[in-house]
UniProtKB/TrEMBL annotation:
Keywords: Hydrolase
Molecular-function GO terms, alphabetical: hydrolase activity
Reactions listed under catalytic activity: queuosine 5'-phosphate + H2O = queuine + D-ribose 5-phosphate
InterPro entries according to UniProt: Q_salvage (IPR019438)
Record-given protein name: Queuosine 5'-phosphate N-glycosylase/hydrolase
Enzyme class label: hydrolase
Pfam families: Q_salvage
Function (record text): Catalyzes the hydrolysis of queuosine 5'-phosphate, releasing the nucleobase queuine (q). Is required for salvage of queuine from exogenous queuosine (Q) that is imported and then converted to queuosine 5'-phosphate intracellularly.
EC number in record: 3.2.2.-
UniProt source species: Ascaris lumbricoides
Amino acid sequence: MAEQRAQVLSEAGAVLNAKFGGSFYHCVENCGKSAVKLLATIVENFESYHDFGDYKGKKVSFLKRAQILVADVYGCLRNKNEIGSFYDIGELTMFADYRVPQALAYLGALHYSSKLMKSLRSNPILPSGCPLEMELRGFSIKACDDIVEAAKRLRTEMDTHLRTITAIDVDMFLWAYRREHAVEIEKNVPYHRIRSINY
């Protein structure tokens, strides 16, 4: 994996030098304050961010690392530099990996069958891109989207002035929750193991 990670860095440097004047800042400038456009720029120009799969004959995309990159830019620049104040940040999904599904299952937002629990507890390394991996990632995105929609309904019902909750907020909460309650969660819900640069 270390060699693949080194190739990712090499590719990033080469693409930035060839297309963006040697600076990722130019990618951000060119997106017109759109998280979706920045995401598209990353995916179109940096092959290592191609987090796609084929699920039952359909192309599916997760784009975990690309979306985290966009979210990190937003988090760093939104109150400091106008170009990072993305008007469409809510269009991003949660960052589908292996820890957030574990937290969702622990909290009851995802249900793992007894067969799946037994399989995951036997600690196999799943093949990257296998149907089970894509299902776990896809259902996690759906669960987080459902949480966002429920939060929006509650916000409307409460007539509150709280800001809108995004899938990024849900993801970050779940990731932090899993870290804070790691021992208890590990005892109860195994995570799916994958060797991949997409996480």
